[in-house]
Amino acid sequence: MNEYDVVIVGGGAAGLSAALVLTRARRKVLVIDAGAPRNAPAKHMHGFLSRDGLPPEQLLSLGRDEVEGYGGKILEGVVTDLVTAGNSGFWVLLSDGKRISTRRLLVATGLRDELPNIPGLADRWARDVLHCPYCHGYEVRDQQLGVLGGSPETVRYAQIVRQWAKDVVLFVPTGFLTPLQRSELLARAIGIIEGGITRILTEDDHLRGVELDDGKTVLRDVLFVPPRFVPNNDLLAGLGCEIDETGWALKDDTGQTSVPGVWIAGNVANPRAQVITAAGEGSAAAMAINADLVDQDVKNAVTAFNLGF
After folding, report:
1. How far apart, in whole angstroms, are the C-alpha atoms of residue 197 and residue 115?
2. Where is the FAD/NAD(P)-binding domain (predicted)?
3. Pick from 74, 85, 75: nearest CA to 23
């Protein structure tokens, strides 16, 4: 039987960071990864101290090597279900029929980005259609930038994007802006394009611009699009973790969910977490998990001592 102190579902920055801390704490750890990281389309990641500009897959490769170097196990596979096993912990069920026993769980399954349904937009995702100016703004600085608006936060988002270029245009539905928002945008020379978008235009495998529903074309080199973040929380919901009205699992300051013994970290817990943030959350969750295991180890030792074992 496969038995572990901690099984980590998800082998991204959060999961591997947690695994590194736990293996160094001499815990028996298994990381199960489905092999579909959110940032796979990106050529480079940024803002990670000492690893700025590193390809995401290289970071994960280095992380896996470090975890395995301390005795951790990495398993490629798809987890289909998480099941409580009474006081003994949890069962982790895989699509290939494997069943793994663990005392504690860390779920770091991330999220998925739902983009506006505009023809051509998804094809350019993580190339010249971007979502995070802090991740990619410097690389597209001083180009012709566009921001697709339509939700309350996009006006401020456009103001942030303006930090990286003087030529910024905000695309919004007609009548969307308040007078104050309009004046603030104009004050910083952010262009305002009102109306519907028909499609994204490309040329020679590069974004060329945006076609509007009135037939006009607005030339842009890059578009910033705030997607809808949807957590990959089916496993958490199936386990009985409390989910709020927006779809995010409830957690305490350490990342522990409403189900004792189950923690979350990274984008499944925090939609705004960048790679470095997710790694930090994984590390913090790992220390909380180890402390929780130590508490149980003490109880088990006292019980065995009193029974004369």
Report:
1. 14
2. 4-281
3. 74
Residue 139 shares a structural domain with residue 203: yes
Within this chain, do residues 101 and 121 fall inside the same structural domain, yes or no?
no
Report the distance separating Cα 254 and Cα 29, nearest Å: 19
* Residue 257 Cα distances to 150, 231, 286, angstroms: 33, 14, 14
Q: Looking at the structure, do residues 153 and 288 belong to the same domain, yes or no?
A: no
Q: What does the pLDDT read at residue 189?
A: 97
Residues 48 and 172 in one domain: no
Residues 202 and 233 in one domain: no
**Cβ neighbours for 253, distance < 8 A, ≥ 6 positions apart:** none
> Which range marks the domain in which residue 302 is found?
2-112+228-306
| Helix locations, 29-73, DSSP H | 56-69
CA–CA gap between residue 10 and residue 160 (Å, rounded): 31
- How much is the pTM? 0.92
